[in-house]
Design brief:
74% of the residues lie in helices and 0% in strands. The N and C termini lie far apart (58 Å).
Length: 104
């Protein structure tokens, strides 16, 4: 392999790692932001903290965060074809949650 090919492979690996780290960070922050955001919502149900789903739907900024996760999942291409298929399906389903919320 020549130096240019090695540099391209390293850059792709670095980009892939950054992509996965951002997606993992957003996924880990989603429940925390959901609970903290639920503290500042006025007309919330009495038992809002019992369900992460309720806190998700009463906090207005969380669909934006889930939408960002969906975009990352749709854009990420893995080394294995099955991983790419699962990522794309997960992104589509995440957009489904954002676009078609359930009632509280």
């Amino acid at each position: 392999m020549d130096e240019i090919t090695k540099a391209k492979i390293k850059e792709k690996a670095r980009s892939s790692l950054l992509h996965r780290n951002v997606l993992g960070g957003l996924g880990m922050l989603l429940p925390v932001i959901s609970i903290i955001g639920g503290l500042f919502v006025r007309n919330k149900p009495e038992s809002w903290w019992y369900s992460i789903s309720v806190t998700y739907y009463i906090t207005p900024a969380l669909p934006i965060i889930l939408g960002a996760c969906a975009i990352f999942l749709l854009c990420y291409r893995s080394y294995e074809k099955i991983d790419t298929i699962i990522n794309v399906l997960s992104g589509i389903f995440a957009f489904g949650v954002v676009l078609f919320p359930c009632e509280i």
